[in-house]
Amino acid sequence: MPTKERKLISFDWAIKKILRSKANFEVLEGFLSELLFDDIKISEILESEANKESLDDKFNRLDIKVKNSNDEIVLVEIQYNRELDYLQRILYGSSKVIVEHIKESEAYAKIVKVISINILYFDLGVGDDYIYKGTTSFKGLHNKSVLKLNARQSELYKTELVEKIFPEYYLIRINNFDDIAKDSLDEWIYFLKNEEIKEHFKAKGLAKAKEVLDYLKCSDAERREYEYYKESLHYQASMYESTYVVGKMDGIKEGIKAGIEQGIEQGEQRKALELAKAMLAEGFDIQTIVKITGLTADVIL
Hints:
The chain is of the alpha/beta class and 301 residues long. The chain has two domains: 11-216, no CATH class; 240-300. The chain contains nine helices and six strands. The chain has helices at 11-17, 25-36, 86-100, 151-157, 184-194, 206-212, 220-281, 286-293, 297-300, and strands at residues 42-46, 64-68, 73-79, 114-120, 131-134, 168-173. A six-stranded mixed β-sheet has the order 1-2-3-4-6-5, sandwiched between helices. Helix 2 (25-36) packs antiparallel against helix 6 (206-212) and helix 7 (220-281) runs antiparallel to helix 8. It is elongated. Mean pLDDT is 80; it is low at 53-61.
């Protein structure tokens, strides 16, 4: 009989309350390393108006902002509620960070590299994958060649690729994941979706996550705070879904009503036209037919 996995604290709560401690950097470093295919080390947690810890700010604000050992800034945001303009929001977020981290007198070469990671529990866009990466590159209109940096620029930026200078965006569409972990990154996605780490999972950071995110190790006060947080998420989701469903039903009702009214109107017009044709055949003059049927002479003729 398979053993039941221990209940774990959700990743979004952990980021807010547990993973900010340097002793627990290993967890977030593991996730970032698996996603970015690099050995990521966190040098510090950065604070700003965008990543406050209060529950009131949870639903529309950044969860965590860190600087790694390459002096890149990594933004991690976990979003539950649908937002049609979410793509513009992550663009704004990365742009804001760029502006925040350059001084007035500094050259543009000092602009920080930003990596925006977005863990989404709603359906954004249309696509059959569950992880999407967005970068900026320049392609020739005529020969389709990709623009590269010259030797001096490559030395300055430590890369030959233009896309490495610009922000990178990752969209992780949790609902699209099929719960089948085919590699170590999938093991992380499985945890993000199910709040569970299976015994055979070997991805970087998951062993530490299983240790520090154990629900049973929380104090009574921490459990109460966590349960309240989870309830608030359910409440927000219910309120949104209720508004969405009611609005959709009202729209359907209005559509049916409009369709019926249009059908009646079209039926009455068809009957009037049939009457007009019959009256024409009987020799009635056009003025009389217009007066009786309510149709215009153009329609009748």
